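Subject: design request, 461 residues
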């Protein structure tokens, strides 16, 4: 390993982008700088506008009750109130997330938080999730980013945002008490199971598409998860704390279920929890998680032996995430392959803000760049999350948008920075001679800063 490259790799590949003076500060022990970030509790977010998911959903339920009680001509006004409730919550949450990434002293943990949030993706393109995506990350992801994978998995699948996004709140077992009762009176009633959550847990959250499960396993797992719902009016019932997770026995498919070669005879909610814990320790899950981490931290096509090493650590530690992160830091491959990863729009924006010590302003200003560059916060378009390979981000039109954004930065801030002095502070030994010369011979401070932010070295990590 070329030690001179190590500080830049630590700050830009494992972290979220170097800040002026940071490479010099971590040069004596880049790996130790990263490992130290794994000590102590995970960084949580709090502040004005960041409200618990229960509170958001309780307000939604109250608006629904008001709408049902209102005259027909008042229904539209009530719907507008729902929009007025959700949008400020989304803006506050997304802005706080961006600000935390830009200001973080533990950028590795911020990167890992966003990695897991993307692995367990929900999308604000589904309107009910618009006011919940931020609290989902704060409540289900952040507190468990330094725990075990099984704990993270259980927290994610029980969260209202996931239950609503993947339509499990009203899923009913075909032989559940409620379905039998209603069907006896209304044979044509459309009640039954929803397989969305079960399918995505198997395909995306744990085993992977080649993980050895069948369609029958999906159907049976959906039966196991029937009754996992949200209190206070979601899922046809008003019981339970409004907006909180609730298990409804009346909706749950009774009896044992056999899936993935094992029988689960646990009663009620314990059945689903048992399946999730078993999935969390599966070798197929270990391989999927190891592969995704290797793709994220090493290269779009990481070496098989690195994936295998991470897989073994996952299994031998029973899914202990800090052990997995330490193994990532200790691997030689991420340090020996500089600039192998092309930054996503989010990584590009965050690293630019960190490089230029720019605070994130409240409101939509800080979020506009993410939308302009094609990565609106918590809007991946599908449960698979945002792609993590360069081919999905480095097209000509996407590059042009980044250059235009860099030009706007240069025009606004070029007079405040000496890009020639800043370049080695941000890129260290990864700074190429061509970029160094281009910045040095720029016609103006604005052009010099634009050339630095749009340089091949800055666009990669």
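Subject: RE: design request

Done. Sequence follows.
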């Amino acid at each position: 390993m070329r030690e001179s490259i190590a500080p830049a790799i630590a700050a830009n590949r494992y972290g979220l982008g170097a800040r002026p003076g940071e490479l010099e500060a971590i040069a004596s022990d880049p790996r130790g700088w990263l490992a130290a970030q794994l000590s102590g509790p995970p960084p949580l977010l709090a502040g004005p506008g960041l409200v618990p998911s229960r509170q958001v959903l309780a307000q939604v339920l109250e608006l629904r009750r008001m709408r049902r009680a209102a005259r027909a001509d008042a229904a539209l006004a009530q719907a507008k109130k729902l929009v007025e409730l959700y949008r400020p919550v989304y803006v506050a949450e997304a802005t706080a997330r961006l600000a935390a990434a830009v200001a973080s002293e533990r950028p590795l943990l911020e990167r890992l938080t966003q990695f897991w949030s993307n692995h367990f993706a929900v999308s604000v393109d589904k309107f009910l999730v618009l006011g919940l995506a931020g609290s989902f990350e704060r409540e289900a992801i952040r507190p468990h980013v330094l725990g075990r994978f099984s704990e993270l998995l259980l927290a994610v699948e029980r969260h209202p945002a996931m239950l609503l996004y993947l339509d499990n709140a009203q899923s009913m077992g075909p032989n559940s008490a409620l379905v039998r009762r209603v069907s006896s009176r209304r044979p044509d009633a459309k009640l039954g199971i929803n397989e969305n959550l079960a399918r995505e847990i198997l395909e995306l959250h744990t085993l992977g598409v080649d993980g050895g499960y069948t369609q029958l396993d999906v159907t049976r797992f959906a039966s196991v998860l029937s009754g996992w719902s949200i209190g206070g009016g979601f899922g046809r019932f008003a019981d339970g704390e409004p907006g909180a997770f609730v298990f409804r026995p009346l909706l749950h498919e009774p009896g044992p279920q056999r899936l993935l070669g094992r029988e689960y005879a646990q009663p009620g909610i314990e059945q689903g929890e048992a399946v999730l814990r078993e999935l969390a320790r599966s070798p197929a899950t270990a391989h999927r998680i190891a592969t995704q981490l290797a793709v994220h931290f090493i290269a779009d096509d990481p070496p098989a032996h690195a994936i295998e090493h991470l897989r073994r650590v996952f299994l031998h530690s029973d899914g202990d995430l800090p052990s997995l992160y330490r193994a990532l830091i200790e691997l030689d491959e991420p340090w020996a392959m500089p600039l192998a990863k092309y930054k996503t729009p989010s990584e590009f924006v965050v690293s630019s803000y960190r490089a230029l010590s720019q605070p994130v302003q409240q409101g939509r200003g800080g979020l506009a760049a993410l939308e302009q560059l094609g990565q609106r916060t918590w809007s991946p378009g599908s449960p698979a999350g945002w792609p993590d390979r360069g081919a999905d981000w480095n097209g000509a039109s996407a590059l042009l948008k980044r250059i235009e954004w860099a030009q706007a930065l240069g025009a606004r801030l070029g007079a405040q920075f000496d890009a020639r002095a800043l370049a080695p502070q941000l890129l260290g030994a990864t700074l190429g001679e061509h970029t160094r010369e281009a910045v040095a011979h720029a016609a103006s401070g604005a052009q010099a800063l634009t050339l630095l932010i749009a340089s091949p070295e800055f666009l990669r990590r």
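The chain has a mean pLDDT of 93.
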